[in-house]
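Async update (no meeting this week)

Hi team, since we skipped the sync, here's where things stand on the single-chain job. The sequence we agreed to prioritize is pasted below, unchanged from the tracker. I ran it this morning and attached the output directly underneath so nobody has to dig for it. Comments welcome in thread, and please keep replies under the output.
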Amino acid sequence: MEFESHIFRFFLYHFLFCRVPHSTGLTRVLRNQRPSSKIVTIGSFSVIRERSEPYESSVFEASGYKWRLILYVTGNKNDGGNNHVSLYVRIEDTESLPTGWEVDVDLKLFVHNARQRQYLTVSDGTVKRYNQGYREWGFAQLIPLSTFHNSSQGYIVQDTCSFGAEIFIVKPVEQQESVTFVSNPPNNVFTWRLLRFSTLQNKFYNSPSFLVGDRYWRLETNPRGVGPGAPHLPFNLEAQGFRPNAVATTTWGAVNLRLRDQLGSNHRLGYCK
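Output:
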């Protein structure tokens, strides 16, 4: 009896961080939860309503780093923020960070809607990579001024408004796996000879284990057959353990089973995958 096997295994893991210089396609949704990193509440907002210079918040800590909110209440004209409120988050105290530092951030910015008791959540779905060349990220078009100043909208109530930020660090992947797609691996043919076949009992017999790729295998059969009426001869391929120092993982395979005709060429073939 001859066994031919072809073990195919494939798994690809690819993780990529990307950064775009200017945010497009902003998503704005209302949510009940408060921002987890920072909230700045501004009273007597009318005093700075027409101010073009940015307001910088106090330094706060989030996710192990120090940050500051940068708010343009009349929009950052140099970043396409005309007729909008602009809001950014700048990383601080970078002198203490190692040379070549990079911090990848999932950033969300917020405007409080006091009338609805919710937070307008603004994001663009990209990971912001902070480094020495890009220490400040945010959205020039956080919210249109026509919406923000409209008293019926609820963003400014009793001359008070609030802004916030949520900063989550996206850490580099700690575990990676690279597996090669293998066709016709070495030693992929195994022959199992059953001697004195007619004297074998009505039970399942197992072949010796054999190694193909990183995994051990064995064949199983019952010489008396299984099933009611006219029993059929079963052949099963069973996966066993892995060779020493191999990575235990899921194995994908395609297998040819052959029952050899020892007197001619009328072999019985079976294929599974």
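Quick observations from my side:
The first strand starts at residue 2 and ends at 7.
Residues 2-13+178-272 form one domain.
Reply here if anything looks off.
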